[in-house]
Amino acid sequence: MKIDKIVSISGKPGLYEIVSQSKNSVIVESLQDKKRLPVHSLHSISALSDIAIYTFEEEVPLKEVFLNIFNKEEGKKAIDPKSEKKELLNYFEEVLPNFDDERVYASNIKKILQWYNALIDSDFDFSSLEEKAEEEK
To answer: Structure pTM?
Structure first.
């Protein structure tokens, strides 16, 4: 499973892996229950590899944020995404100290933590992110 094959679909909870493409849709498989479904152009699909988080200097790719969380938690799940707003902001400050708190909202942090925990539950190989980060430098 590669990060550029994992997507979020608007209006649908959880994360999905792109399995194949057809003429009018993309076939995805839920990371949670492994059910496959077609996704048509009605839905907006966002690849996790294309998402970045605002900081005061630049935009940091989501995969780097995932790696920071993974290293902080030593491969375990992150805090509960339903935690209090202040706790979420403090936690995210530890993971990405220079994030732009005026453009990154608690709801964004909740979503990032939900995605991270979903990847942990599906046994995602975070070492592949480290290799990719090394290649890009």
So the answer is: 0.89
Domain 3-48 classification at class level:
mainly beta
User: For residue 60, what pLDDT is reported?
Assistant: 94
Classify domain 51-136 at the CATH class level.
Answer: mainly alpha
| Separation between Cα atoms, residue 136 and residue 131, nearest integer Å | 9
Name which of 30-39, 62-71, 86-95, 119-128 the model is least confident about: 119-128
Enumerate the domain spans of the chain. Answer: 3-48, 51-136
